[in-house]
Amino acid sequence: MKAIRTAPELSEQVYQAIHDGICDGSLGPGEHLVQEQLAMRLGVSRQPVQQAMARLKADGLVEEVGKRGLRVAELDLGLMRHHYDVRAALDGLAARAAAGRARDDAAIAARIDREGQAILAAGEAAVAKGDTAKQIRHDEAFHTFLYSVSGNPLIAQTAEPHWRFLRRVMGDVLRRAEAPKTIWREHAQMLEAIVAGDAATAEDLATRHIRAAADALETALRENSSSSELANHD
C-alpha cells in the first residue's frame, strides 16, 4: 500500500487502501490489523483508520478478536453464497429490464451494444495479458453497466454493498474457479440477448452466470483451502 498524501476524503482513501489490500490478498484472512501500524504505512493519523475500520466491519471484511483488536475476517462461505444469491436476482432483473428497453428503442439498443462491446474488448484484452486486477475492474464495469442501462437506479444502489464483499472473492474466481475466457464469453452472450431485446434469455443468462461463479468458487475453495482458512457458518 502506498502512503496517502492528500487530505480530502481521507477516511474514504484509507478505507479503499485497506479494502484493496484485503481484496488482492496482501492482507490475508486472519491477519491482525494494528491501527497504529496501518496509520504509519498509509501516512495518516489514527482517526481516519478508525473510521475506515468501522466501515470494513460493517462490510464483513474485518472482525473483532476479543481484546486483541481487529483482524481480516475469514472467508465465510455461507455469507458468500447469500451475497451471490442477491446478486443473481439483481443482475437478472437488470438484464431483463435492459433488454426490454432495447426492444422498445433501437437507439438505446445501439448504445447498449456500442458501450457494452467496448467493455467486452477491454476485458478480453486484460485476459490476454493475464492481468487479474484489470479483469476484476472490467468485470465489475460490465455488471454495473447492465445496472445503468436497466433504467432502474435502485439496482446499482442495492447491489453496491454486495459488491464490497464480493470484490474480495473475485480474484479467487479468476485464479481458481472459472477460466477467464469463459466468463467473458458469457458476458458476450448476455449482451447479445439484451441488444436483441430477448428479456427472458437475458435474465436467464445473467442469473446462471452469477450462480455458476458462486458454485465454481465454493468448489475450488473447498478443494484447495484447509479448514483453518475458511469459516463456514451456514
In one word, what is the shape? elongated
Q: How many domains in all?
A: 2
| Unreliable stretches | 226-234
Helix content: over 70%
Q: Please summarize the sheet with the most strands.
A: 3 strands, antiparallel
Strands of the widest sheet, in order across it, are 1-3-2
Estimated structural class: mainly alpha
Classify the beta-strand content into a percent band.
Answer: 5-15%
End-to-end gap? 33 Å
The CATH class name of the largest domain reads: Mainly Alpha
What CATH architecture label of the largest domain applies? Answer: Up-down Bundle
Computed CA radius of gyration, to the nearest angstrom: 19 Å
Oligomer: single chain
At the fold tier of CATH, the topology name of the largest domain is Four Helix Bundle (Hemerythrin (Met), subunit A)
Which superfamily, in CATH terms, is the homologous superfamily of the largest domain? GntR ligand-binding domain-like
Name the helix and strand elements from N-terminus to C-terminus, one letter apiece. HEHHEEEHHHHHHE
Average pLDDT number: 87
State the total count of DSSP E strands: 5
Count of helical stretches: 9
Brief summary of the model shown:
With 234 residues, this protein is mainly α. 74% of the residues lie in helices and 5% in strands.
Description:
The protein has 2 domains: 65 residues, Orthogonal Bundle (Arc Repressor Mutant, subunit A), CATH 1.10.10; 153 residues, Four Helix Bundle (Hemerythrin (Met), subunit A) (Up-down Bundle). It is built from 9 helices and 5 strands, in the order αβααβββααααααβ. 74% of the residues lie in helices and 5% in strands. The C terminus is likely disordered. The strands form 2 sheets. The protein has a 3-stranded antiparallel beta sheet with strand order 1-3-2. Strands 4-5 form a two-stranded parallel sheet. With 234 residues, it is mainly alpha-helical. Strand 2 and strand 3 form a beta hairpin. The longest helix is centred in the middle third of the chain and has 28 residues.
